[in-house]
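=== RUN LOG ===
request id: a7f3
mode: sequence -> structure
chains: 1
length: 492
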Amino acid sequence: MSSPDIPRTSPLRSRWAALGVLSTSMLMTILDGSIVTVAMPSIQSDLGFSPAGLSWIVNAYLIPLGGLLLLAGRLGDLVGRKALFLAGNAVFTGASVLAGVATAPGVLIAARFLQGVGSALASAVVLGILVTLFTDPRERTRAIGFFSFTGAAGASIGQVLGGVLTDALSWHWIFFINLPIGLATILLALPALPRDRGIGLGAGADVVGALLVTSGLMLGIYTVVGVERNGWLAARTLGLGAVSLALLAAFVARQARAATPLMPLRILRSRNVSGAYLVQLLVLSGMFSFQVIVALYMQKVLGYSALETGLAMLPAAVAIGAVSLFVSARLSQRFGERTVLLAGLVLLAAALGWLTRVPEHASYTVDLLPVMVLIAGGGLVLPALTGLGMSSARPDDAGLASGLFTTVQQVGMALGVAVLTTLAASRTEALRADGRSEGAALTGGYHLAFGVSAGLLVAALAVTLIVLRRPRPAEDAQGRPETEPAVTATAL
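=== RESULT ===
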């Protein structure tokens, strides 16, 4: 089997230029996700979306994004990660223009679906490119810290920029802004990203497996995002969920016996990698309550505008970004990723626990600002999880590992949306029925969501303590002595 071209001797300046391109692409897609939520009321009134149909502005993006990541990551290994990255950014940029000119709900939903496809193609291979560029442990840790900083910046900028663009111009500009960023990313990526030829379709052209995993993931995410409308115990939810699980089980069974599997199961044999995926699922599910429900609390209970909400959450993004960029790498190099992950999880659990006591009439300085400081734990957790989740990736599997890691992220966020919003809404309705005021009922519902989120972080902490272990440099991902170089210089 031939191996892809790996730029192990690329000059440091060239590698950091490539990292800048990768981070810009991720900034654009993360910014797009947060910027849309702020503009949704304006989109609804302008295009005439029904309340139920409005959720499809988000769902139409999430379903292809979560469903195609694993397949896209493996395709990057087979046909070349640079080519797939360029194609994904081109599709995303073109779809953004289509979304910006949309004058009917159907057109906007179709454009959002195409955005999800483009985002899946590009983001599935980003981490795969990153780990093949940065093979030195110190350089890689710093690169992952910078990459995590970009994610925090994108989420925060999106919330603020969404309010500014929607109020000053119109919601159309939240999509048009992707055009110059996307074109710049593509033009800069052509010289900056290293050429890789891929290992060839013959090394993993499992068409049946591709159909099974893509349909299973898409159906699963479609089921989860419909829970808020249908309920967890509805026949539709249970039936579609069962079909989704059956498709994914069939995919795993096929990969165990296929001659050229789409996803070689060896990638999951590492205790640290599998544990990191489970921790990430718990963390992303729990962190939804901070990313979205805190914003809802500020607007619906405290009466903040969209712009005020974005500015109020800015300290959190600054804290996460500063820790991931300046602190995380140094701590990981000195104490190890597992120890840094534990410290970050403690801070995040404390932040979400603090939110369970926010009152109906809160003071930002007293009740919310401490949360924005404690949430800096995310700047420790995200880089550490990225390093652990990609630690077993071989050169010919880096795209697959990247796609699988990002798939877990999307599934975690989708589960967070379904579980926490449903719990908050149910609790709010019960408190209204008991005669509570609107503000008190909403606050009580959000308290429940924050409490469950804190529990998910505690569960992530337990998994880290029990499952993850300190790396042993003489072993590979299967626990055997290394016989060939892995992508990571810190083997398991």
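=== NOTES ===
Residues 144 and 386 are 7 Å apart (CA to CA).
The first helix runs from residue 12 to 47.
=== END ===
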